[in-house]
Amino acid sequence: MSFRSQAPSEFNQELRAYEQVAKLQRYRLAEGAEEEFDEDFVLKPCDLSLLDSADAADSERFIGDLGESLEDTGFAILTGHGVDPALYAEAHRRTREFFERHPLEVKQRYRARRQGSVNQGYFPMRETTVIHPDLVEGWVFCRRAFDLAEDPDWDEAGFWPSPGWEAFFRQLVLAHEQLIHPIMRSILSYLGEDPGSFDERLTATNFGFRLNYYPPMTDVPEGTTGRMLGHEDVDLFTILPAAETEGLQLLHRKTMKWVRVAAPPGAIVLNTGDYMQRITNNRLPSTTHRVSAPRDPAARARPRTSFPMAVYVWEDEVLEVLPNQGAPLYPPIRAEDFHTRITSKYYGDSYHATGEEGAVERRVR
Fold this sequence. Notes:
- This protein is an alpha+beta fold.
- Helices cover 24% and strands 19% of the residues.
- The chain has a single domain, classed as Sandwich (Jelly Rolls), CATH 2.60.120.
- The chain has helices at 56-73, 85-101, 104-107, 165-190, 274-279, 297-300, 335-347, and strands spanning 45-47, 75-79, 113-115, 118-123, 137-142, 207-214, 226-231, 237-241, 248-252, 257-260, 268-272, 289-292, 304-306, 309-311, 318-319, 333-334.
- The strands form three sheets. Strands 1, 2, 3, 4, 5, 6, 8, 11, 13 and 14 form a ten-stranded mixed β-sheet that branches. Strands 7-12-9-10 form a four-stranded antiparallel β-sheet, with no helix packed on it. A two-stranded antiparallel ribbon has the order 15-16.
- α1 (56-73) packs across α4.
């Protein structure tokens, strides 16, 4: 196996020209031995089922727990969300099978390309971005990759390398779509905004459903510790079912120490992204996180899988600071312009487009 000896950028601040929200934290994209950890910090679970309680105090408690956790760290642990843990367990198994069953020459036929704002398709090992050789294979599927409208003309082969996979992973997409409105409404309520103000924009909205496969770390160069570089998500929020293997870490901006994110099986890790930081006027941060190697050597010898769902708005929507979040620090901006300016740091300067240029296959319901 061949590895690039040095990442093009060493620190995140070298890429600050691409950022569309304030990110004052400074960290190495690759992990370093000198980093500090807060081993005592634990994310408190937030019970989403409280929203259905007949007691209004229960609902308020969930909204407060969720908002306080996101405002503090940009992360929250969701329990009581109603998605069957057995579906998540099966999804971990199927994700591993998906990458291991299809040979590289087949996967390469689906190399990622930009459609609208989002780079969709297959990302080979060490080629997730141009700024760091991550030890992960990825595959991004957006709304158009799923037969959500039961369209007789929908083409499965245009997105999936073999039959049957779309039908299974569609179950996850549909389950997570049911969570989008309750999550966003709770966030807006916490912020003192109209809780229904995003209902229409987040109905059949754009998303990026990503399958990640981290191979066993038994044949990588000595001293390699990380699996995915430190980064911030671009979206409103990401719905990430708990992994079966240790590795997810967040950088707490208030202490500048790394925190190991531990979520119980069946729980969801929720984190806010750049869209959210922009519209909340920096109140809810787009928090730095990464995937590190597990501390247990036996766990390093096993593959790791994950299947996050990033929630966006459609390209033509305008991102602007919410009305009750103080004097706006950011002017309104079209979502596609915002999104592609940021992600040009990952895919090259030509990725950015404004107006209608470069947009492909507009809103598909």
